[in-house]
Amino acid sequence: MLKKVNPKQDFVKLEHEVLKFWEDKEIFKQYQARNAKSDKHWSFLDGPITANNPMGVHHAWGRTLKDVFQRFKNMQGYQERFQNTFDCQGLWVEVEVEKELGFKNKKDIEKYGVDKFVNKCKERVNKYAKIQTEQSIRLGQFMDWDESYYTMSEENNYAIWHFLKKCHEQGYLYKGRDSVPWCARCGTAISQHEILTEEYKELVHTAVYFRLPLQSDKFKNTSLLVWTTTPWTIPANVAVAMSPDFAYGLYQHKENKEQIIFLKDLEDKVFKKDKANFELVKTYKGKELAGLKYVGAFDDLERVEKAAQKNPDTFHTIILAEDLVTDEEGTGMVHIAPGCGKEDFDLSKEEKLSVIDVIDEGANYNAGMGELSGKNAKQDPKLIFAALKEKEAGKYLYKLEDYQHRYPTCWRCKEELVWRVVDEWYISMDELRHKMADVTKKIKWLPSFGLDQELDWLKNMHDWLISKKRYWGLALPIYECKCGNFEVIGSREELKEKAVAGWPEFDGNTPHKPWVDNVKIKCSQCDETLTRIPDVGNPWLDAGILPYSSLGYFRDKVTDVDGQVKTGKEYWRKWHPADLILECFPGQFKNWFYSLIAMGTVLEDTNPFATVLGYALVRDEKGEEMHKSKGNAIWFDEAAEKMGVDAMRLMYAAANPYKNLNFGYGPADDYRRKMILLWNVYSFFVTYASIDKFDPRQNRVDFGKLNNKLDQYIISLLHETIKNFTERLEKHDVFGAISYAEQFLESLANWYVRRSRRRFWKSENDDDKNQAYHVLYGVLTSYIKMLAPVIPFVSENMYQNLVRSFDDSAPESIHLTDYPVADEKLIDQGLNDQMRLLLRVVSLGHAARDKGGIKVRQPLSKVTVIGGAELDKDLQELLADELNVKQINFAEKAVGTNSRDNSVEKYATQQVKLNFPILGKKYGSKVKEIQQALGQGSKIEGNELIVGEYKLSADEYELTYEPKEGYSVESDRELVVVLDTKITPELRQEGIARDIVRFIQDLRKEADYNVDDRITVNYKVGDKRDEIVKVFKKHSEDIKKETLAQELAEGELVNADIEKKVIIGSVEIKLAIKK
Description:
- About 40% of the residues lie in helices and about 20% in strands.
- The protein is of the alpha+beta class.
- Helix 23 packs across helix 24, helix 25 crosses helix 29 and helix 33 packs parallel to helix 35.
- About 40% of the residues are buried.
């Protein structure tokens, strides 16, 4: 028996009930095991979520999509692994632990104890992995949560050791000295991969224009005018770069005769109001000034003096560097400080320039920097301004100005970055990038532009900086010797074999700092005892190795999902490459996708995944980034309990993954309303099916032999929708699939059910009613199975009532059922197309009524349809009833053709409006010809407008109609619908009868009657009563049938349950009803 349905269901309460049901019945275990013996499998590789904080709503987008695909494939009968992964190591976690402990820098960690700090990091990971697991379960995500994979595991860390050893063997691994982005707070390099577009912030810095006096008899009392937005780098200056063919002006001050040189084209930007005080003396090409020497403001500092002595020929010299110099800002020359910038450092190698290392890892000026030593370069730029102003009576400082620009920040702590020259470990890309490009091309990228973005990144990226001067992360297995040799350990076994000291202290601990650092090995070249380098690894190594570490590649034996024990490589070959990965794509081209491809190329020269689906970013309702500080961040737990996760999942599934999603409770309400629409259909069915004691096992109906057009249509549309929905999911297009599902629900609720209500209301339990029940039951049970991967909670609740209440031998959960398969024999494409045309006519017909100010309850004599194919007789009757018209007239010829019979000109004046912006782009000056040709006439062919020799597409013109008296007209391209709005007395009285029915129905609702309650109706009519009384008598039977009234009489009703006065026209009517 069907259980009663609450028409105002609390979906959040429902979700918690379903969660308890899943837990009590151990549904996931059954779900996990249902395809264990299947002969087909589908491999999904989970992009690890960082176990560092509770989930935000942005995490739920990806986890929803992951769950949709895994549920879909499980219902299709595929073996799956359901392995969740947690990212554990790196600055993500370290910075949060530092905040917890109140630490400000790395010195605090060293003082606290590295071992204690690392254990705190592990504790945080375990804490938030548990929280995120609970949140993911709340989201409805089915995973094998007891077997989640952690990147901090020994297996994962040793797997990366193996990869790095392979890199070493293939000649890719090296130690390099370079100028790198550096976070002073975190005390580590930030690789090129980690500086994402979103890490560049719009900041205002104080830019400085400063003078560098030339040392030349030809240019006495003359200075180069140089500009920089990073004044802390000025003490590191060793050269000035010009462009060889730029024109540089020599300007002289009219009073003090001071001379300055800078790019002539920038004189307005540089001088501004001061321009009147200078005059241009001469112009030089950059190449004419190359080789000149100058003096700097900080030449007296020890470190600067040493740099001058090291390379006296090139120190403080004008050099040519066309690619570095711009004529759009600054002064047309670049201050070169190789110790403080990547491009400058590269240039120093070409030009044999000295490198001045001016700051330490905390961005404090090093010793040998005079009064600057020990002071922070970034936090106090005024130190530089003061020095420029004070030295030699201020001859070095020209002016300061605020400058807004995009500047990189640390992806973790958000502090501004600096550049330092340091020794780091790299994987060379010279040879590897080409191999990786070949692997990348084997992958299907969704969206398709992802392939070009990844290839572009591979083409232009620097070598992969893999070292971090931190604590919680992969202990890089590199042992460096003074003799120049370095050893790379590839496994725990190799480390044990080569250990000459420290193994007992390490044994039993994870391969992390500080425990692994106890182990010493011998140099294979000189026999020196070696200690591991102190660096840890880039955290993207941790996630990049997953296609190997989490798929048993390094294990001796693995138990497969079917219970068979296989070798690790056999298991890996079965599940690799993954059929699908999906992740938020803006930053992953540089990070996870890249690391997966790099590690797959080195280890097996193969693609680690077949398809990647990228999705965009989650923003707030206004499209702005969510931040706690802005007060617009929404936490997952809050959203789940406020909007419900099924609505959240539906919103994510319906979102175009290639565009940012604006998340908020307003947009979520739209999807909650869609769920309410489905629930209303379900509630309607259960209500009437319960009244009539419907049992789907009895009086079954053959859907191939239906005799009602609406039934035929909704079954045909259902199977067309299942077919399209399935095809879209197979192509990883959830967004497109949901579009089909939403269109079907609209047709089901607002067309099929609305038009079929009387079939369920009527008292006779005839074949037509039985057929309607079976059709709606079949549609609902198939539709909720189709949508079960998307809205697992509501679909489960409906399934338990619709299916399990009748058949306790059915699968215990909807998620244990087979995915519905479209029966193409039941798809009637001709009927579907005709019904789509009918619904277009309905939409235009109602719009025409609105335009004419005529309510739907008022019958009209005729509707004329121009430009569409004629409908079958049954559908014409349906259309007439829906539009409440007596006659349907289909024009024989489309609008705009030569025939005048039934054409729109009878009813309205046609007007064509050209879309000039679009036409102008396509036709240019010929638009005037089109305008002139339009004056001679036009015609419509399909969606094209024929104007002379031109064929205009649908977006290049608009048709409008001015109706003639007695008509109302609406159009949609080639289709025109005309309503005859003239109302006869008979039509008016029929409309009054429909108004009476509506008022009685409203009284039934106010009285809170059951839908099947039979009633008595009495009425009393006031003045001007003749026409109303006539209507009551003439339409008595229709009114009684529509309102389930057994009696309809004039006069008072004794002991009425409810009575009310209503107005029809200007006549007052008193209506009273009782059961």
